[in-house]
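[audit] Reproducing an earlier prediction to check determinism. Same input, same settings, fresh worker. If the tokens differ from the archived copy the diff job will pick it up downstream; this log only records the rerun itself.
[audit] input (692 residues):
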Amino acid sequence: MRVRLALTRGGAIQATRLDHRPCIESIAKTTASRVYADVRLLVFPLLAFTVTAQQLNFQTGVRYALDASGTVPISMIAADFNGDGVADLAVLNLGGNSSGPTHGGVSVLITNADGTFKTAVNYAAPSSCAPYFVAAGDFMRDGTQDLLLVCGLSNELVVFPGKGDGTFGAAVVSHASITPIVYGDYLRVAAGDFNGDGIADVVALSYDPLAATIAGNPYFLPGNGDGTFGTAVKIAAVTGSSLSSGDFNRDGRLDLVVSEPAALTLNLLTGTLPTAGPVAILLGNGDGTFAAGATYQPGFAPGPVLVGDVNSDGVPDLVVSSFTQGLAVYIGKGDGTFTSTYNNTETVLGGTLGLPALGDPFGTGNPSMIVPVIGCCQTTIGVLPGNGDGTFQTPVVLLTGVSSPSIVAADFDGDNRADLAQVDYGSVIAFGNLLGAAHADRTPPQNTQAVIFRNSSTGQFPLRNQNAASYSFAPFAPDSIVAAFGDNLATGTGPATTLPLPTVLNGANVSVRDSTGRPRRAQLTYASPRQVNYIVPDGTAAGKATVTIGAGSSTSTGVVTISAVGPALFTVNLAGLAAADVVRVHGDGSSAVENVFQLDGSRVVAHPIDLGPQTDQVFLELFGTGSRGGKVVTATIGGLSVPVTYAGVSGYAGEDQINIGPLPRALAGKGAAEILVLVDGVAANAVNVSIQ
């Protein structure tokens, strides 16, 4: 049953239940059509697996020409710029003439979803901008991915508005009242919605150009929703050389991690190493301010901190690099604190380390740490196979023949194996120390290229279970929908078409053995050889559970965690637009149901919600899974608290429904508004709607 809202004669809002036949096929399509090669670096559940060097095989790199105007490609990012669910690439180009960096831009390569890419399209930065950092985010508040360049020298922020088809509009330029730190390959800037208004903001480290240091304080620059940014506000007295962001305490608000090597001065450019300092956590308050959290000492001077899920529990972890002094891993507890699981003060790879990436090139189900190691003329790649618990095995070393500290690990061809991408500097001289790269003398490079290495490793994948709404590996709740990925999971393809839902579909069956040792058969909504969607059986006990999928003579097994709640919300596009209905209750008691989406050609985009006259009350029905076991449900939209009028089952198999409203009048004109839902203190994935 769907739960609708109605206005009684006395003017009170009450919930009424409307009976509907469970739409099994719609749920199957929702989860089946979601492309597994998401723009995120996907990591998988813990499974015991030992790898050997022979199991890892990459094809010869395919090269794609970049900007030929004499710029130097210094880094790249992966994001979905055309909405097809597969990662594309953006390469940051720094001006490369011998008199110093004066110009540059970004090259965009759109994937063909088969491991190949279209010809790069180059977007030049303003002549005053020397770009040192690139990020993706929705800075225009239109549901599409834009590109952000952070400029040195001119202190500018440049946004190229995304059109949603892989192309970008003319640059929008803001002048920041800070001096961004731009030296080397550290992470100096974080982009995300830090104040809960549904618009991507920026946090950047700013330093005093007159001081002998390349560390600085973090500043918050709120996004205005038009590609420009508000006045920079100092966050804390923390002095850092690198920062990253993530939701470390799972409250739906972005937090920060700042590395603070002491005595990080310009002497580093001549080879003097910084002294060891802490890694500091700043917990977001959801309004652009932050509170001091815990600090951690890795035993070396911390450099860039990569945020990712090392042990596949749905909680962000930290990978701390120090270029020449080691690597450290801290496993997140989900409350804003971390436990050290790997701390190697002598680099296991030798040489100077670039920024690590996480991915699963072996297909073991355990994330590996992928680390570029820079030499004078080319880069080797050290792949440290993960054990799934935050520890790593002896590295496998790959020789790529490419000179670059920047690496991206993502699935470019849809085979569920992590491929690699690097940029090739071409002719670059006198790099010396990595942190001096931004000011190294260089000749104009020739034939700068992006190089794609497709993973052609063979072997069957272990089973990977993810929430069918959020695609998170966080704990699953009984009666929630799970999407399992692997090989040979079924002998046919298609959704369930009968009620009650079957426990055998297209040759596949799913058994869930809970922490008490009791096995239960799961109902299935969809089955294919590479994906099976199932519902966690009612009564499954909390704790570790073993999921086994059988099909003919093939059996796949994985381990998941069961808890009372595991809230997640469905979305209708990759921009996080909520799968929701708008219910408008008029002053005369009549009501109407409206969509939150519309079609723009073949693209699903937001349909702005009109709050209407003062006599109208507007509610949202959100659809998800994993929340029906909760006792306390709260919600905010656009940073404002909103009543929860119903939370429970929707009537569709495994689907839950949360009704919120009436929406506050203060949201009028908001544009993109982020919705955060907490169920018994556990945050669902953030979704958004547009309000006109």
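[audit] rerun output stored. Observation attached for the diff report: Helices lie at 24-32.
[audit] end
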